[in-house]
Amino acid sequence: MKYTELKNDIAQGDRRIYLFEGEDAYFRTHGEEQVKKAFLTLPELNFAAFDGSSLKGRALAELTSAMAAYPFMAEKRIIRVSEFYPTDADYDKYLKSAFENCAESTILIIVNQGAGKGAALKRKKCIAYFDCSHTDDETVTRWVYATLKRAGFASDVQACRNVAEYCLCDMARVSSEVQKIIEYGVSPVTAEIVEQLVYKDADYRIYEMTDAVAVKNYSRFLTICGELSKKSADKSMVISALHRYFKNLLIILTSDESAASLAAKLKMPEFAVRKSGDRARAFGKERLLYYTGALYDFSARMRSGRLSPDGAFYCSLAAILFG
């Protein structure tokens, strides 16, 4: 299920096991908090947490024993296990019966950053799976608009969309930046206010840099380069980010896979893959091959000591501007 369905699902109150899985820390954390807020009382007595990496083989009995314990002066007892990737064999031997016959008084919350190589927990009928992957820009834009509205702030669509784009739809960052806008206290929230307050993710600045090159706005390219270099105090970071960006463009341009498949492989939002496809076609395969090769070479020379960080940085700029 989508994370946005969680609130209504909790209201039904008939789940025993929740799985929050995906790379967005905001969704994972807030999913767990919503379940605990709805069902947990006396947490010092009715809450237990486990590190999934320590639960293997017979050690899984610790988890199943905790699930079998009764709550104290409450209706529910909540067990949380993080980064939990049991093997198929361990699931069948130690967990299957406990999971499929989980007591009504017990709620198990599994919080995983990724799918792992173990049993496919999200496909188990006894587990309610909520997708905590980075969501698309339209959903994040609506979330920003609704959150500002609840706080009493009017906003225009472009301002909300810019928040989503500048944060690369990472809800942890989006939430933090929206709170910053609320604390600023000016309504309506405009694109100009967002530009002033919201720090653009470094990867987004890289996107702006390459976009400037594509349209031959070289002064804009150099301005952003200077800002990134000054802010990070690490020119090697800028080189690495540029190389990664051009490499991803090349992969997207030459791949026959779907946007969804590429998004999972490259760990990018799907909307970013689609936008990157347009940018990749504008550059063309030949230029992208040249950029990735040149930047890799300068980075390797820097790591081996043949070029200083400054030297590698300015060689990279020259390759992009004049290559």
Automatic annotation (TrEMBL):
Keywords of the record: DNA replication, DNA-directed DNA polymerase, Nucleotidyltransferase, Transferase
GO molecular function: DNA binding; DNA-directed DNA polymerase activity
InterPro entries per record: DNA_pol3_delta-like_C, DNA_polIII_delta, P-loop_NTPase
Pfam family, one: DNA_pol3_delta_C
Domain DNA polymerase III delta subunit-like C-terminal: 205-314
GO annotation (BP), single: DNA-templated DNA replication
Keyword Hydrolase found: no
SUPFAM superfamilies given in the database record: P-loop containing nucleoside triphosphate hydrolases (SSF52540)
GO cellular component annotations of the record: DNA polymerase III complex
Database matches in Gene3D superfamilies: 1.20.272.10, P-loop containing nucleotide triphosphate hydrolases
Protein's UniProt name: DNA polymerase III delta subunit-like C-terminal domain-containing protein
Top-level taxonomy: Bacteria, Bacillati, Bacillota, Clostridia, Eubacteriales
